Structures are given as C-alpha cells and as structure tokens.
Amino acid sequence: MRRKYFEAKTTDKDLAEYALTKFHSLYEIERNCKEQQLSYHEIKNVRQQESVPILNELHEWMLVQYKTLLPSSPIRTAIAYSLERWERLCYYMHIPVENCSILRLKSAAL
Length: 110
Hints:
By secondary structure, this protein is mainly alpha-helical. It is built from six helices and no strands.
C-alpha cells in the first residue's frame, strides 16, 4: 500500500508525505511492541490506545482528500487503493503479532 504513496510523491509530495508519515507511525508502534517483547494483551492495548487514533485520522483524511482530488491524480489512485483495502489494513488490530504472517498470506490470496 505504501508503494502507491511513494509513487505519488512525484506529483503530490505533501499529501503523499502525510500518508507515509501516518504509515510510518503505525510501523513504529509495532516495532516498539516487538522490541519491548510485549504480550499479546499488552500489544492489543497499545494498538487500541496508539494505532486506532492514527488509523481513524488517516481514514478521515483519505475520505476528504478522495472527494477533492482529480480522478487521474496519482495520490487519488493511492487513496482509492487504500480505501478499497481498508478493512484488511485494519485487520491486524485484532490478531496477535505472531500471526501477521497469516495476514500476509491471506492478503496475497485475495
């Protein structure tokens, strides 16, 4: 998903950077959980407290931007791609970190 935003940086740098920053924040939260060797329940709590607000903010931003951008713009394409996969993006909120490989397999199968 991030690849689409990297591709959009050539024409819509500020908007692409905004989304990439949000994705980076989510990855950073997961990295911190792993480094701290948190239990599944601790990770779930961290995700609820830290990741959910970021996801909600990103989703609202995407919905607003999608309505205002030209259909042919690369950033709108990236946002459309993300919105089509939003449920899968948020799926990791409900599974243990150890099962993220299962999520990757499910996404690849879809």
